[in-house]
Design a protein that fits this description.
Mean pLDDT: 96
Shape: globular
Number of helices: 3
Number of strands: 3
Largest sheet: 3 strands, mixed
Length: 76
């Protein structure tokens, strides 16, 4: 999931070198924590949260194919 999040977020940000993705498993749930440069946070969240919702939808679909669930936390 880390690689997927990084590849999805990289084109959205101006500072791709500042992308940090942490992943941990809690039972059958995968928690992905995303941290980006403060100036890029708005780009990742998107207007009205639409970009963040789209990222969560993609991650959830991939996780379900693996028999898991996924949560994306965008750290501030």
């Amino acid at each position: 999931m880390r690689e997927l999040v990084t590849s999805l977020v990289r084109p959205l940000v101006r500072s791709p070198g500042r992308i940090q993705v942490q992943e941990r498993t809690e039972g059958e749930r995968v928690v992905v924590e995303l941290s980006v440069h403060p100036d890029d946070r708005g780009r990742v969240i998107g207007r009205g949260g639409r970009t963040a919702d789209a990222l969560r939808t993609v991650l959830d679909a991939v996780a379900r194919r693996r028999g898991q669930s996924c949560v994306l936390d965008i750290l501030g």
